[in-house]
Design brief:
By secondary structure, the chain is α+β, with helices and mostly antiparallel strands. It has two domains: 65 residues, no CATH class; 92 residues. The protein is elongated.
Length: 167
């Protein structure tokens, strides 16, 4: 008695015979293609991203540590402004590969999950841009580490000024 062939097996056999032309006709090809993609928290990350490494990750920090060499050598990223109502009148200016992912790290240290990402912009050299923004802000406002006693708008203007000067 001949063995029955499943629909999927038939598609794979047709593909091998040159009859299938699309990924949907070859489940194995779909699986191989997906092995080259990167997803962070369920979101697709393009191959052009500086930390791109195929796989599925919960956050960029996890991806960064799995691709630590790319993380250290990559200059691209974002400079951001974060606030917390507990520190009224103060803003934190920082840098990260991904500001929204960085915000998640702050939230874990706060039982109220009350940090807010107020502004961010993409820059070609996140470390240099952050350093320059800190210098400008420190010359104008009180400073505690990376926190500055200024408005969100004032911090945003300084970040935009640094970005324009670096382009």
């Amino acid at each position: 008695m001949p063995q029955e062939i499943t629909h999927t097996e038939e598609k794979v056999m047709n593909y091998k015979r040159g009859k299938g032309k699309y990924y949907k006709d070859n489940p194995e090809a779909v699986w191989r293609r997906d092995q080259t993609k990167m997803f962070v928290n369920g979101k697709y990350i393009p191959k052009s991203h500086p930390l791109h490494k195929p796989g599925r990750y919960k956050g960029f920090e996890e991806a960064a540590f799995s691709a630590l060499q790319n993380y250290k050598s990559s200059k691209q990223g974002e400079v951001y402004v974060i606030t917390n109502p507990a520190f009224e009148g103060w803003v934190k200016v920082g840098m990260a590969v991904d500001a929204a992912d960085r915000l998640k790290n702050y939230q874990t240290s706060s039982p109220f999950r009350d940090y807010e990402l107020q502004y961010f912009c993409k820059v070609t050299d996140r470390r240099a841009s952050e350093s320059q923004a800190h210098q400008i802000l420190a010359s104008k406002f009180n400073q505690q580490g990376e926190w500055f006693q200024c408005s969100i708008e004032e911090a945003r203007q300084v970040i935009n000024q640094v970005k324009l000067e670096s382009e």
